[in-house]
Every structure is written in structure tokens, then in C-alpha cells.
Automatic annotation (TrEMBL), chain A:
<protein>
    <submittedName>
        <fullName>Peptide/nickel transport system ATP-binding protein</fullName>
    </submittedName>
</protein>
<dbReference type="GO" id="GO:0016887">
    <property type="term" value="F:ATP hydrolysis activity"/>
</dbReference>
<feature type="compositionally biased region" description="Low complexity">
    <location>
        <begin position="269"/>
        <end position="282"/>
    </location>
</feature>
<dbReference type="GO" id="GO:0005886">
    <property type="term" value="C:plasma membrane"/>
</dbReference>
<dbReference type="InterPro" id="IPR027417">
    <property type="entry name" value="P-loop_NTPase"/>
</dbReference>
<dbReference type="GO" id="GO:0005524">
    <property type="term" value="F:ATP binding"/>
</dbReference>
<comment type="similarity">
    <text>Belongs to the ABC transporter superfamily.</text>
</comment>
UniProtKB/TrEMBL annotation, chain B:
<keyword id="KW-1003">Cell membrane</keyword>
<feature type="transmembrane region" description="Helical">
    <location>
        <begin position="158"/>
        <end position="183"/>
    </location>
</feature>
<keyword id="KW-0813">Transport</keyword>
<dbReference type="GO" id="GO:0055085">
    <property type="term" value="P:transmembrane transport"/>
</dbReference>
<feature type="transmembrane region" description="Helical">
    <location>
        <begin position="127"/>
        <end position="146"/>
    </location>
</feature>
<dbReference type="InterPro" id="IPR000515">
    <property type="entry name" value="MetI-like"/>
</dbReference>
<dbReference type="Pfam" id="PF00528">
    <property type="entry name" value="BPD_transp_1"/>
</dbReference>
Automatic annotation (TrEMBL), chain D:
<dbReference type="GO" id="GO:0005886">
    <property type="term" value="C:plasma membrane"/>
</dbReference>
<dbReference type="InterPro" id="IPR000515">
    <property type="entry name" value="MetI-like"/>
</dbReference>
<keyword id="KW-0813">Transport</keyword>
<keyword id="KW-1003">Cell membrane</keyword>
<feature type="transmembrane region" description="Helical">
    <location>
        <begin position="203"/>
        <end position="221"/>
    </location>
</feature>
<comment type="similarity">
    <text>Belongs to the binding-protein-dependent transport system permease family.</text>
</comment>
<feature type="transmembrane region" description="Helical">
    <location>
        <begin position="241"/>
        <end position="264"/>
    </location>
</feature>
Amino acid sequence: MSDVVLRIADLNVTFTTDSGDVPAVRGIDLEVRRGRVVALVGESGSGKSVTSLSVLGLLPGTARVTGSVELADGDTLRDVVTTPEDQLVDLRGRVASMVFQEPMTALNPTMTLGDQVAEAVLNHERVPRAVARERAVELLRSVGIPEPERRAGQYPHELSGGQRQRVVIAIALACEPRLIVADEPTTALDVTVQAGILDLLRSLVAERETALLLVTHNMGVVADLADEVAVMSGGRIVEHGLVDQVLLEPAHAYTRALLDAVPEPPPASSTTASRRSSLSRPGSTGAEVSTGSTAGGDDAREVVLDLRGVSLDYRVQGRHVRAVERLDLTVRAGEMLGLVGESGSGKSTAGRACLGLLTPSEGEVLLLGTSVARARGRARRRLLADVGVVFQDPGGSLDPRRLVGESIAEPLAIHGRDGRRLTAAEKRARVRELLDAVRLPAGAERRYPHEFSGGQRQRIGLARALALRPRLLVADEPTSALDVSVQAEVLQVLRDLHAELGFGCLFISHDLGVVHELTDRVAVLRSGRLVESGATADVFSAPRELYTAELLASVPAPDPVAQRERREARLRLASGEDVAPAPGAAR
Amino acid sequence: MTTAIPAQSGAVEAGVAAPPPVRAARGGFGRFLIRRVLQSLVVILVVSVIVFALLHALPGGPARGVLGQQASPEQIAAFEAANGLDQPVVLQYLSFLGRSLTGDLGDSYLLNQSVSDAIALRLPKTLLLTGLSLVVAVLIAVPAGVYQAVRRNRAVDYWLSTLAIVAYSTPTFFLGMLLILLLSQTAGLFPAAAPQGTGIAEVLAQPAALVLPVLTGAVPIVATFSRYMRSATLDNLGEDYVRTARAKGTAYRRVVLRHVLRNSLTPVVAMLGYYLPVMFGGALVVEQLFNYPGMGLLFWSAAQSSDFPVLLGCVLVISVATVVGSLVADLVQALLDPRTRGGLR
Amino acid sequence: DEAAARTDVNYALPANATPNWIVPLGIAGKLATHNSAITRTLWEPLVAYDGSEGEMGRVASADLADEITFSDDSRTVTITLDDRTWSDGEPVTSADVKLWFDLVKGNTDVWASYSEGRMPDNVTEVATPDEKTVELTFDKVYNPEWLQASQLTLVVPLPSHAWAKSADDETPDPALAETEDGAKAIFEYLIAQGEDLGTYATNPLWQTINGPYSLTGFTDSGQVELTKNEKYDGDDAASIETVNLLPYTSTDAEVNAVRSGAVDYGYIPTTGLDAPEQYESLGFAVEPWAGWSITYLPYNFNHPELGPVYRQLYVRQALQHLVDQEQISDVIWKGAALPGYGPVPQNPESDFLSEEQKANPYPFDPEAAATLLADHGWTAGSDGVLECTSPGTGDDQCGEDVEKGQQLAITILAQSGSAETDNMFAEIKSTFDQAGVAVTIESAPLNTVLSSIAPCTADQADCDWQLPFFGTAGSWYFGGYPSGERVFGTGAASNFGSYSDDELDTLMHDSTESTDPSVMQAYSKYGAENLPVMWLPNPVYQVSVIKEGLEGTTQDPLASFHPQRWSWAG
Amino acid sequence: MTALRRFARNRLAVVGAVALAVLVLFVLVGPLVYPTEQVATDLGAANLPPGTDGHPLGTDALGYDNLGRLMIAGRVSLLVGVLAGALATVVGTLWGAVAGYVGGVVDAVMMRVVDAGIAIPAIFLLLVLSTIVRPTVGMMIVVLGLVSWLVPARLIRAEALSVRTRDYVVAARAMGATHRRTVLTHVIPNTVGTVVVNATFQVADAILLVAYISFLGMGVQPPTTDWGAMLNDGINYIYQGAWWLILPPGLAIVIVVCALNFVGDGLRDVVDVKGRTA
Ligand SMILES: Nc1ncnc2c1ncn2[C@@H]1O[C@H](COP(=O)(O)OP(=O)(O)OP(=O)(O)O)[C@@H](O)[C@H]1O
Ligand SMILES: Nc1ncnc2c1ncn2[C@@H]1O[C@H](COP(=O)(O)OP(=O)(O)OP(=O)(O)O)[C@@H](O)[C@H]1O
Ligand SMILES: [Mg+2]
Ligand SMILES: [Mg+2]
Ligand code: NI
């Protein structure tokens, strides 16, 4: 037997839906060998997740599968498509495990994280429960969850998006499987943690010869980790080859387009020369112009969002835990403020507070000049009519029982437009427009959220946020699940709209490339505190805080060669931190 | 609206100035309990006022019912004077309240017993029988409902559904009759009467006689609970976490048992909270059919014969059971689903 | 055979009616028949008057009186006592009779069988010339039959040597009862003891008895065990050693017990009469137990609109013609109710019953009804309901106070909870409707019905009831003597419809206070013809099932059971 | 259209819908096709066994043709059952959803009201009501609804407590949706499984309760009747083996409830978009 761990041959997956059959995967062949990392990239909705789900036989009941998916169990290859469920159980987790794309809903809400991780251990190993639990804590630690002992006793809803994603990764690593299928394992992670996870995966591959099927849209990650790349489009693999070859000399038109769309990574750090991608996006100049104007300080513009010394607490096991400490932020009309920071640093929490979903224990949130906390009833509604929201969890924030069209039209239904109710036809027209803007096919409005891919759902959420003409947009990781080409287009839509409407925007993201490209100013959060803020260009080119520099250095570049350099630079920086803290680091 | 923002998720309680960490925990729950107990007292008080008012709104008063159609006006007047019924309703209520607070529920008009004796005699028996039915029912219904959900839209599911519906739409009385006819009078397997005798021990000593009444009481509950269980399980089987659990290599059975079951118990827990007052109130039909005098019968005959003190006593017992049931259901749900713990504050 | 070997009988008590009183002094709410039946097996009355021997009359073997002699002027009665002893060996004496009078006289406010002007008010003197003789003097002349059947029967000689005290540790002293306070104290003491159900089988007070049975078991749930009184020295000795009185929570529970053989003497629902074989095959005889009662619907003669209509005899006659008692009894009640045409109970037959009542003056005859109404100016309106179109007092007119346009539309307020009753009124509604008398049936629990039909005058707000029914178990049970002054007498408490008729009043007065024995028959005739109420079939007390081999079970129409007469054949 | 198709795919749901339609035809059109005397009694022809004198199901104690009676009775049972069941479900669901969703003081007050309602035994309430209200079909529906909305209120509140923590509800809130809108479009639809199950039980309850409240004098008045009452009357004849008095009304009730249940399941399938994952 060769080293083949996974062999997919002529795989076809078709979904039966109300609106007819949806072919998701159309005859793909793929092989993953021991110790190899195969990256599956491609357009959002091209069938990456479906392919990875089929590896573990986890497709929903509405899927029809033909072809074969063989997994190597010891020396035998077993076809997942034909193996009955009760035998698959033995393979899952032990031979192959999976990291799911949407970590927010992937965890059981009523079970502690420790138990959920320990369960994976207990499924395949005969160890005492206590041992399994210890192992769970170790796993949580290895994926970079702070205070793993305490976190093990917490429930999923008490974690940030990135933390949950790491728990899901911990589960996948639990039994040291021969193959890990990781579906966008780092989408919700900030770059530093992402770098850590990538290091972890790399060491697994290197030491245990674990095979990795990595689905991702982040070309930087591909460049950093992958040996081979398969590019998917429209359910087919259009190009497959070694990483250097595909990334540097793409053969297929689609691959080229994809790479073209990669946003320019920010400078790695002040000490590292940034290797600019030769293909800078044309739109980026526009962004820079506007950045320039903001930097000039146009304080006459109306303040649409004003956080004044806001502190936010959560209550965990009866104790108050501070998530955000005395945060000051302002967003002016027409301004885009990027909020970046480590996973779990309180970005989403701050975002929720802006919308009045959390009441600050200190300080005040002024939305369009009014305190959200004090606004009630009609006043509150009128206030929120001018605010668009994108939630971090694209799946969870869509009502599973409503058609996508209804969800997108919901703000219209709530607020009408210009103080008037819209007719059904008007709504339908607006929904079409929005779907088109976020590059979703017509007809999508008649399907349900679960029938979409992760990236598609995220775009649905974005479409909903833009349905009205907001004066303020609070977007929590609005593009994390998008492949670069779609992301580029969506960002362009955002930018155009922004130019047209002049809304203010709080843009929460861990993707520094996007932040760099899009925002005028940036604020950096760490452990709930604002550590640095200023014009994006300034902060990114000359970070005052070591933390910021570290963040920047962690951004992987989409060029394998360049990425190797960046990685080394980052490691240097990290070790340098121990020796001599950068001047001006206020801790 | 002056309440907290509802959309605040479960355990999140932002906006409260942070008290010392550890005391906050106990204080939070302790305060919740105190508040609930106070609310419960109000409920019980209100219920007693309503029932009292309704009783006195009934035309004619209790005398006719107690003394019968042959009673003379003098006797009726004497009866009313003796029982304080000639006083203003408010005074009557206050004196009832005063006595209840000292634990004296008064004497039955008809039973030649004090109300507390009458209740003390029947309550344990009723609790035993209905409690057994409930336990049996839950033991059958929960697995049955889960099984049906797992086998959704297969023949078994249809058959069990139909069975549950048939069982539910059969009047309990008829069901009991059928069981007696088949299992007792034709097959001779079990006695047709529930265990006779006063004490719990005596009742428990006759397990064969318990079978039919417990079964009769359990069948409708099985039907109810299994339907709710099926539905809730179906909801949860569609959740993403099920897929995650399966991906870990957890066998489907275990996924259902360890993950889905717990998350699907919400309606059953809510129903269980509701069954507590039912247990205290007794199951009239079973008691009537199986010659097992309990709370149901006590209440029913008191209602029929205008035995006000007994009626009020029973209602008090039932209201206490209601508020306790509702509290327990809330606590259990919070225990099962950490997201809802915000409600406990 | 098997039956011969048995020494016990299991008797089913009425459903959901557990015994709760045994003291032979009744108080409010404790008067249920099964209570007094149990009491009577422990303490014999002074005079027994019932139907336990097949017809209504005195049952001398079951009482303590020997001879009852009325004086010529009928003002006094001399009663000599049987030569009997209490279970503790003390003789039964005239003092024991006197104790009863003393106690009841001093406590008329609590003694439940009290009725003003009757016992003990009508007895002006109780003399005890010797140990075995009692002489009662009455305030006026009364009908001796009435006295015997309904007044003397109330008297229960009490063991003065044991009970004439007001506390456990006192020495009994019959003289104590002669003072008013003493009487009250003793009464109170006895009642208080009687309120302790748990001690019924053990309290020494209740061990001093003179009846054929003693009480040996009394559980909280109402199960009673009677054991043959070995010290009994009367003529009514028991044959069955142990009688178990079993309580049931419902008829269904009882029927199940019957079918499983746990009951020797029980009852079944009326539907059982449809197919008695099912019980006969189990070794039971099915026997309806007729009650000494009448069943009727009182007309509310003071109803603002319908009162004047009801006051017209021809209307009542017409309506009575529309009630098909025979069919209702046979088909709906399956024989578990017997037609009744007048104020005197018809089963068993008695000397009180007139030929006229027996013959039914107003048999089912819709045509006769139609004629009667048509002849008095009632014509059908557009909706088919009869309407008075010719008001006035002439012979062919509607009658006094009946207004033009008054519709013959009646709301019957019927007792709910019985299929037979429901069906009976569905049937009545159907025949009435066809005859142009619109009927609306409302139903409510017995209590509600009774509470909402107090005698009233037209100007009272709650005088809006028209024709109520409360007779699923018989509307009115009589004592031994079926005189109706409490039901039909002008102004009587239970005369709900305020019926008032001078002639009937006279007849009823005479039935108690004249010595003419034929007066009851005249009353029976007049009541049957004048229709103070609407007569309906009288439901039986219960449909009994009696185990084959159990003898001596003649069913007393007074609904009392006499277990001492029972025996197993063989 | 897709909803209809989704519904139609659940074959049992279609069977249920058809059965309901057939029953409605049976009670509405039946008497036209098979006319019988249902007003005047006929004691001469009472208690006939099936097949005699052209009575396919025999006659009852008043001589009414049983088959014809089944049709008449069904009108009341279906009307009262469905409407009272619907009333209780709607009121209970709304109440519970609002309480669970809004939370806080509102929840406490609303749920204590439910507690109080549950603590007052229904028997007692009906008994008192029977002395106050006149029995009409409308009144019956209201009264039955009044005593049965409490359990769904509790059930739905429990569900709402967990639904309100979902992100999509939070999202609706953040978009400025009114409580009303959130409850109606997000909270309740996501408790639909429980609502549907409860609704079928409510209908069964209501149909049987009509007979029960007749006992207290609040039921339908002669010559009308309902299935529950027919069944109760019939049960008296159980030892005689008079199946024709018991089975037809019993089956009718079971069919209605079963059919509604299957229709409910079908509706659930329409809303339950995720379907099976196993
Ligand atoms: N409901 C909750 N209960 C308790 N703790 C919470 C809750 N939600 C978040 N936290 C904690 O608050 C901190 C900040 O979380 P937040 O979701 O704001 O992070 P974030 O910056 O959005 O991170 P990410 O990039 O991973 O999404 C984390 O440590 C998290 O564990
Ligand atoms: N359950 C389903 N029912 C119907 N269609 C589905 C279902 N799941 C996925 N699809 C469709 O299948 C296609 C492939 O989806 P998949 O999730 O594999 O995309 P993806 O490549 O992972 O995209 P992304 O990068 O956005 O996650 C999409 O067009 C999606 O709409
Ligand atoms: Mg995907
Ligand atoms: Mg976040
Ligand atoms: Ni509000």
C-alpha cells in the first residue's frame, strides 16, 4: 500500500431542494498522502465544504452522492460512500477528523467545552474520564485557549468566535488522526493565533506525518502551509499542482483571477520590508485617497458612533468578568474605522454594545448622538433604522426557518423606507438588487440558509445589513469566510456604497489586509483595552505598540517564498519581544 | 418598556456594577429564590382570594348543598351562622386567612373530619399513584419519543404516532374500563381495584393491584410526553452540533443520548412542572374507576356538595404544588440549558 | 354448598358516600340514609315503621316498643317497652326514652330532624309511670297513623346509664339531662365524641348498644364492619356473623367489584337492566329497589310571565298529558324508574294511594293536550309556538292574568350528570315541541339547581326560574307517612313553586291532624288531579344485584338496609 | 407553492388532510345524502342494534338513527374542537412566547398569572362558570379556550427562553424589530414543533371536554349532541358489547385528532427546513 490516506474518485454530490436539484460537486478526483498538506481553494460556494464533509460521510440527508471516497484505515482503503454508518463511527475522529467551517454553531450549547473535547478522546481510547478531561485541557491549551482549566468548564456561548473555532480544532486533534480535514480552520482567528495554529498543524504534519486537507480562502495560509493546491470552481477542480507552481505560475484563468484578488498584505513590521504584491488592486488607490483625507482630520463631520469610556462585563459562573475596559471610540459619518485585535480581545463585545445589545457597566454608547441604552420603543427603532449590522456568525444570525429572501428583506419590513411600507414587489426588487450586489445568484432568495455555503451565508448577512441605507454600519468579520475574489468584489460594493451614502463604519476584522485596504483609521484592542489607534496607514506602517507589530507580522503573504521570509521575521520579532520590548510599549 | 433588554443572551448580565465575585454568585441565585418565593406567596394569596370570591359568587351558598332539599330555612340559617357564612365575605376571607396561617384549614361541612385530616389521609395515596404513573410514563415516553424522532417518517414512527393519538383521544375512563375488561375480568391478570387500605405501606404491599391504575394513569401521559419528545428531538437533530459530535466518532446512538436528549427535554420538563399540581390535585378518573379515594375525588365531591372548607384546602395544596412545580421546572431547565440561566435572575 | 358455608356478607355502600356518623342523634349534613341504616343496626328505635316486610307498616320485631295505645281522645299515647337489655346487661327502661326527649328538646337548634311544631314540640309531657311504660301527651289531636309512622319513629331510646354525662370521666346521671344546660352539655359531649371517626369501633360509649349488630371496624376510608351482637335479646336477631359495608368511589368501581365477586349485595347502572343476563350469569339476581318517594317538576307559580299561565289548571293538565311516563320509564330508564301520577308514592302500593292516582288522570295524549290549549285560546304563531290569542277569563279564553301574545315557551332547569335524566328531557322537549310548547333545556349540577329555586315572589329578581328538576335520585323521600305538607303546603319551606291551594291545604292538614283514615286517599286523588307540580317517573333508589343464596333481602322503600334479616340459604 | 409541495411530500399529511376533508363533508353534506330524523325522538324505535329497520348503525336510547346522529354531532365537535383548540393554542403560544422572549418583570408577572390559572382547578372554574354563562357554542369555545391555554403558555415560554438567546433573535433585535415582530416571525416559528403537537392535543381535549362540561350543565343542549357525549353515553353499554354505540364516535374523534396530527406534522415539515441529517 502506498501512502495514500484519502482518495476521492469521481465524486458527485447533488442536493435535493424545493427549488430543484443543486449540483454542488461534479466529479472531482483528489488524493491526499501521508504527511502532505493539500489545500483546497476556490470560489465561495464552489463545493469545498461539501467535498470535505463527504470525506467523513457527514453530508445531510438531502445529498445524493456518487463516486467513491476512500479512507485508509491501517492498510485497507474503505469507501466512505458505501460504508454503513455504524462502521463509519469507528473511522471518524480516529482515522480522519474534521474542523468545521462555522465554529459558532458547531458546539453543543449545553455541554461544557471540556466535556466536548474529552468525548472525542473517550470515543476511541479506553482511558478514565479524568484522564480524558486532563487531555482535553491540554488540547485546549495547545490551540491557544487562555486559562484552559477554567475554560473547560465553560459553555460555548461564553466564548468568542475565535475561541470556539479553536475548540473545534482541539476536538479534531484529539485522537491524532491520520487525516485532518480542516474547513476554513482559521477564518475566525486573528493573525497571531492563526499563525500559532498553523505552526501547530505544521508540526503535526512534520512529526506525525498527519495528512491535512485544508480548505481555505486565505492564500497566505496556503502559501504558508500547503504542499499541493487544488483549485475548485463550480464544483470542479480546475487546477491542481504543487503550491509554488499554482501560486506563482497559475495555469487556469480562474486561479489567476483568484490570485489577482488577494488584498495587499500590510507591511510585516517596521523591521521587515514588505513585499508588495505585484498586482495591487486598482480600487486601493481610492481607498488611500480617502484615508488621506481622514488623516487630515475633518472633525466637522457628524459623529455617528461614540463610545465613551465603555466597560462591559459578562457573568460567568456567577462571577463578573470584564470583557471590555474603558473603551473610547468614535466613528464619524463617512469614516471607516477598523477594529482589530487578538481573538477574544473583546471586539464583538464592543460591537454588540454599540447596538445596545449589551448594557455597559460604565460609560456610555452614543449612537447617532443618542444613548442607545436609554432609547426605548419607537425612538430606539428609529435609531436602529439607520444602523446596519453584520454578525460574526453568519449561519446563526439567520433564522433557519425563514427564506433567505425574507431574511434580507427583514430590515425593509421593519422600517420601511423613507417612512413608508414597501410593497411586496418593491421588496422583491430590492432583495434581487442586494443579492446581485453580494454576488449571489437570483433564486437564492427562495432557499433556506442551511442550503448555502459558509461564504454565501456571510454575504446574505451583509446584504441584509445593507438593505436599508444605513448611516452607520457595524460589521463583525463580514468577509472572513469569503474567498479573495468574491471578497474583493464585496469590498468593492461596500466601498461604492460607502462613497454613495457616506455612512460611518465600524469594521471589525482580523484580516489586516482587508482592514488596511478598506479603513481610514484603525483601533487595536488587546484584552479589552484599546492599545493603539490612529490612521490606518500610520499604524500599519509604523506601529507604536509591539503588539500591533506582532499582529502585522503574523499576516501570511500569498507568496510561498515571501511567506517563508515573513514567518521568520515574525519569529524573530516574537523572540525579540522577550529580550527587549519595543520602545513606547505602554502596558 | 422599562425592563432589561430582552435580547440580552442568557448568562450575560452586563451592566450591573460588579459586586465582589464570589458573593455575586450566591447573591444572584439567592435573590432569585427569595424573589420567586415572594412571587409564589402572592400567587397563592391571589388564588385563594379568587377562589373564595368565586365560591361566594355561587348562587344560594353552600347550605342547600350540604343540608339537601328538605332543609328548612331555620336550619339553613343556623348552619350559616354556625359557619360564619352570614358575615361579610371580606371578614370571612380574613378569618380564613388567619386560620390558614396557623395551619388550621377548618372542618369539612360533610366529612366529619378536619380538612387537614381529610387531606393528610388522601394526599400521600394520590401522590404515590400519580407519581408512579408519571415515573412509568416518563420512562416509556422519553425513549419512545426519541426513537420516533430518529426513525422519523418511517413505518414505526407512523405507528407509534397513531398509537399515541389513539391513546390520547381515548377518554381515560374508557381506557380504564377496557383495561379492566381485558386484563382483569377476561384474563384475570390483575385485580380491578387499586390497593385498598390506608397507609402507603399497605398500598405498596399490593403491587399487582397497582398495575392497572398506574397504567391507566400513565397511558395519556406517555402519549403526551412522547409526542413532545419526538418533536423536540427532531428540532435538535437538525442542529450543527450533532454533526460535530458525529465527526468526533461518537456513535449516532450516543450522540442522541448524550447530546440531543438533554437539549430536547425542554417541553417535557415544562410539562413535568405542570404535572406536579396535577399530582397533588389527584387523578379523578383513576380514583373513581379503581376505587382509590384520593385528592381528586375529595376535591370533586367537595365541589359537587359545596363543601367550601375542603375545596379551599385542596386549592391551597394545589397552588403550593403549582408554584413549586413552576419553580422546579425553571430550575431544571436552567440546569439543562446554560443559555437560559439569565432567566434565573 | 358454598353459600351455606359463608358467614359474612359484603354490601356495597352508595358510590362516593362514605359513612361518617353513627350517633343516633342526627346533626346537619350527617343524615345520609346509610348512616342511619348503620345506626339502626346498633340502636333499635322506639317504633320501627318501614317497608322491610314488603309493605309500609310498623315492624314490631325491630323496635323497642311493645304495645302502643292511643287514648280515646287521641291526645295521649301509652307505650310499653319490650323486656330488653343493653349489651352491658342493664335493662332498657322508660328513662332511656326520656333521655332522648330531654336531649332533643334542649337542642332543637342542632338536632337535624327538627321541624317546628313537630317532634318534640308537639309533645307537651313525657311521663314515665314505671320502668317499662312511657306516656306521651300531645298538644292537640293528631292522626295516630301519622304519629306512629313519622313522629314516634324518630325516637331512639338512649342508654341513660351510660350516656347521660358531659365528659368522659363523669358518672352518668339521667337527671342532668332534665336541665336545659345539662341537656346541651350532654348533647355536645355526644356529638363531640361522634366527631372522632377513628374511635367508632373502640369508644366505650358506642359499645353500649341494643341492636342486632355491633360495630367492630370503621376505617378512615369508610369501610365498616358489623359483627353479630351476641348479647342481643330481641326478636330481630342477626343470622349473618359479619357484615362488611364497602365504600366505593364510583358506580363503575363498584360494578367492577361486583363482577369480580367482591360484593354480595351491590348495585349496577340502569343500563344493566337492559341485559340482566350478564349479571345473572355471574350468580346475581337483579332487583330494582323502589324508593318511598315521588318525583316531580315544581311550577314556579310566581314567575312574572309564566306564573299566570301555570296557574291555569287546563295548562297543567295539557302539559301533564304531554309526558309519556310509561315510555320514559320503560325505554329511557329501562324500568329503573316507575311512573308516578300523584303525591303519594306508588311503590309499594299502600292504603294511602287513591284509585284515581293509580289510574293516571292525565295519560299521555298529545291530542287531548292540543284540544285543551286550543279550546282556551292558544294558537300556534309563525314559529310554531303556541301563543295566547284570546286573553280573558272566559271559558274559552286563556285565563286570568295571561296576557295576549304570551308564548308557551318554557325553560327547564334540569339536574345534570345523568344520561337517563338528559334523555328524559330530550324526550320531553321533543314531545312538547311537537305540541307547540317550546322547551329549552338548561342543565346544572344538583346543588346549583337547588340553590337557584328558592320560593320567591314575582317582584324578586331571582324569581326567573320556570320549571326545575332535581329528581335523578327521586325528588322527595318520605318518612313512613307520605303526607306532603312540607312540599305542597302554602308557604312551606320546600314548596319551591309557591303552590297554594286551599283544598289541598285542608287535606294535608287533615292527614296529620284528623283521625279519619281515608283522608290520605282524598289527598292522593286531589293531588293527582290538581297537579301542584308536573309528575314524572320516580327513579328507583338503586338497581340492586344480590348474590344467589342470600335471602331475606326484601328491599325497604325507605332505602334502609336491614342486614339482620339476611341469611345464606342452605 | 414550494410549501405546498413540501407538505404534499409527507404522504401521511396528505392522508390527514384528505381525512379531515372527508369528515367535514360527512358532517356537512352527509345529512343531505342520508337524511334522518334528528329532532323528534322515537322511543318506540330506541336501542335498535345495527342493521334493523334501515338503521345501519342502529339507534340510540331516544330512537335517533346513530349514523345520522354521528353527522350532527360531528358539526359541534369539529367546530368546538378545532376553534377551542385553536383559541387555546393561539392565546397560550402568544402568551408564552412573549413572556419567554421579553423576560424580566414581564415574564415574572405573566408566568405567575399562568401559575395562578393552573392552581385554580379547571373543574372548579367550569362549575362556577356553568352557573353564570348560558351554554352556546360560542360560549363553549371561549370557556374551553379559557381553561386550556395555560399549558401551552408554559411550554412555549420554556422554548422561547432558549430561542431568544439565538443569534437570529439577537439580530432581529439589533435591527430594531419590535417585540411583536420578533415574537411572531422568529420566536414562535422556531417553537413550531411544540406548538403543533400541543395544538393537536388541544383539539382532542376540546372535543372530549365538551362532553365533560355537559356533565356540569354547560354542554350542548338537546336535540344536538357531540361525539364526546355520544361516546360517553355509549360507554355505559360497554358490558352489553354495544360496540356500535362506542366505536363510531370514538373512531371519529381518533380520526380527527390523528388527521390533525398528521397535518400538523406536515406543516412542521414545511417549516422545519433542515430536515433529516441522519
Ligand atoms: N456570553 C458570554 N459569557 C461570558 N463570557 C463571554 C461571553 N461572550 C464572550 N465572552 C468572553 O469575552 C471575551 C471577549 O469576547 P468577544 O466575543 O468580544 O471576542 P472577539 O474579540 O470578538 O474575539 P474573536 O475574534 O475570537 O471573535 C472572551 O474572552 C470571551 O470568552
Ligand atoms: N444542504 C444543502 N442544500 C442545498 N444546497 C447546498 C447545501 N449545502 C451546500 N449547498 C450548495 O452547494 C454549493 C457548494 O457549497 P459548499 O458549502 O461546498 O461551498 P464552499 O466551497 O464551502 O463555499 P464557502 O467558501 O463559501 O464555504 C453551494 O452552492 C451551496 O449553495
Ligand atoms: Mg464552505
Ligand atoms: Mg468576535
Ligand atoms: Ni421593551
